[in-house]
Amino acid sequence: MRLSLSGAKRSLASRIAIAAAGLALGSTMAVATATTANAAIACKVTYEQNQWPGGMSVNLTIQNLGDALNGWTLTFTFPDSGQRVDYGWSANWSQQGQSVTATSLDWNRSVPSGGSVNIGFNGSWSGSNPTPTDFKINGVACNGTPSSPPVTPPVTPPVSPSPSVSPSPSVSPSPSVSPSPSPSVSPPVSPPPGGRVDNPYEGADGYVNPEWRANALSEPGGSRVANTSTAVWLDRIAAIEGAGKMGLREHLNEAVEQDEANGSKPLTIQVVIYNLPNRDCSALASNGELLISENGLNRYKSEYIDPIAEIMSDPKYRNLRIVAILEPDSLPNLITNVNSHEKCREAQQSGAYVQGVQYAINKLRAIPNVYIYVDAAHHGWLGWDTNFGPAVDLFYSTIAGTQYGVDGVDGFIVNTANYSATVEPYFNINTTVNGVTVRQSKWVDWNQYVDEQSFAQALRNALIAKGFRNTIGMLIDTSRNGWGGPDRPTGPSSATDVNKFVDESRIDRRIHAGNWCNQAGAGLGERPRANPAPGIDAYVWVKPPGESDGASEEIPNDEGKSFDRMCDPTYEGNSLNGYNKTGALPNAPISGHWFSAQFQELMRNAYPPLD
Ligand code: BGC
Which residues form a coiled coil (predicted)? Predict the structure, then answer.
């Protein structure tokens, strides 16, 4: 995970769906029966949407009431010229003027008689947002009498597929509808004692994970940081129960004890939700256990999110402030890596990432004392305009499409497990050298940002301009971006060549900003604290320092982790890091495992330095 790339060259082209769409409250159904030379086509289309000013998230269910279909094309017309499909899933979407076309993909082209298919899109509108009514399948209007009665959607998703279900969870052989955020679920009714706060870090102590603390204490000098709050990562289903380590309940029980021992201040515990199907789709080091093609989205919902939500909603935890960090890298991968990585393309086409994130928000946000921050990558990934704008759109449409609308989240986190500096002290994006902008340097590579804080603040502003409330706040993972030690510059360079100037002035000492695995020379960053800068809710240590980003060579394991050569110090790199060396430390264990040598170096190079 923690991919980074020169996003200038990647972007909109990677988005499959283009056009967009209409709105309307409730749903529209049209039913048709017709006969062609070969087969009787009869269909019913249900159009359900959540809408908000200027935007919408629409789920469509196509029920096949006629003969089996082998390949289908759905068409409909937006009544208003301002309606657009921006981002679609589970079909090839296109829009010409007001006419929208969605064509089946390989995995959902066959729909048995009586079967159904779920597809959807996020879209935008201006003017008005009426519901389309002229649905056609393969040119035949869906406006007749159904040959079988409409089927009531199941309330809960199927837990496991029946053997005849095709690979995607959204196609099923019997008429069924995948769950979409149910408008009937009511928002939280009982606020946490003291009420829901704007910034869960303010005035609170941070949970100290006893397992991370023990690892830190096992290292000479580790006691200087062992009481720092770090996040608990639920990186697979088994992590909920613990699998030999502390499970979620044990952490929350321990958090209650820490809270009670610490007097009157509330306690904030951070839990990373990290198990989407096709996880880490553009890299290998943190590949997960679930696959979209093996019913992963349904398993994510029922075996992962549901049990987590059940535990977190236990009343004995109601005094805790539980911060859920949602799915590092997932939505950003849909922005830049769909064309280059099959697993990302599948994540986009199936809608699994968007639907998984929406499901997690709907479940977790229902718990009054859970606060949600969605991962927004880092400046070296989304900092180019061509990636930034689409990311803002995708964050907005995804979250506005939850049952809580834009109130589904409390904010966003940047730099999770990455190494980008919080602030570059000796130059900023407006610095010029001999009349040449630093944007033109190889290091900055036309990015719009040189560090995480300026990126986080700009992203927050753009999200608010898009429609989020101005109460959203940003988090910055500062666990490993300190860049102290002997190689840290002490002032701006006097060089007149822009490349030399930037390379001698930057505190981020990586070989290339696209390097992300176990970076040599890094140090612990700012210690966690609330309200460090305008718009920033907190500096946090989400990646527990000392836990590896990935193995430096192939190591067999039962965690679904693969070997990513970006973690191999001998690798010569690829287009994403400009064919540079990876800068990764040697002899690293698989991701998440304790890496003593790295922890030692992080302490040596800490900035601010350790006492
Ligand atoms: C790994 C997880 C681990 C987390 C925190 C991720 O890169 O994939 O297994 O829990 O880092 O160290």
Answer: none
C-alpha–C-alpha distance, residues 518 and 586, integer Å: 9
**Structure token pair of residue 219:** 């290292």
Q: What are 240's two structure tokens?
A: 């909920």
Q: Among the three residues 141, 159, 180, which one is the final residue of a domain in this structure?
A: 141
The atom number, within ligand 1, closest to the CA of 280 reads: 8
Poorest-pLDDT segment among 148-162, 352-366, 523-537: 148-162
CATH number where 285 lies: 3.20.20.40
DSSP assignment string, 178-193: -----TTSPPP-SPPT
- Same structural domain, 234 and 129: no
1 lines ligand 1 (CB under 6 A): yes
Mutation test of ligand 1: which of 209, 240, 274, 284 has the most ligand atoms closer than 8 Å to its C-beta? 274
Per-residue pLDDT tens over the stretch 107-151: 668 888 888 888 888 889 998 999 999 999 998 999 765 544 433
- The answer to whether residue 80 is catalytic is no
Chain Cα centroid distance, residue 402? 14
Phi, psi angles (nearest 5°) of residue 46 = -110, 130
Same domain, 367 and 504: yes
Is 314 marked active-site?
A: no
Q: Are 170 and 117 in contact (CB under 8 A)?
A: yes
Rounded distance, CA 86 to CA 397, Å? 9
Other CB atoms within a 10 A radius of the CB of residue 223 amount to 11
Selection from 588, 605, 595 nearest residue 218 by Cα: 595
- Pocket of ligand 1, candidates 233, 419, 479, 541: which has the most ligand atoms within 8 Å of its Cβ, to mutate? 233
**Does any domain span residue 489?**
yes
Distance between CA 297 and CA 301 in Å, rounded? 6
Range of the domain at 348: 205-604
Phi, psi of 378 (to 5 degrees): -160, 170
Same domain, yes or no: 136 and 216 = no
DSSP 202-238: TT-EEPP-HHHHHHHHTSTTGGGTTTS--PEEE-SHH
Is the CB of residue 538 less than 8 Å from the CB of residue 475?
A: yes
Query: Could you give the CA distance from residue 347 to residue 341 in angstroms, rounded to a whole number?
Result: 10
Residue 477 appears among annotated catalytic residues: no
Cα dihedral 198, 226, 416, 355 sign: negative
C-alpha 418 to ligand 1 mean position (Å): 12
Residue 169 inside a domain? The answer is no
- Residue 63 · residue 74 · CB < 8 Å: no
Which atom of ligand 1 is closest in space to residue 2's alpha carbon?
7
Assigned domain for 161 exists: no
Residue 159 falls within a domain, yes or no? no
Q: Which of 375, 549, 564, 568 is catalytic?
A: 549
Which band of pLDDT confidence, cut at 50, 70 and 90, is reported for residue 50? confident
Question: 0.90 cut: is pTM over it?
Answer: no
Do 527 and 382 fall into the same domain? yes
* Residues 219 and 136 both lie in one domain: no
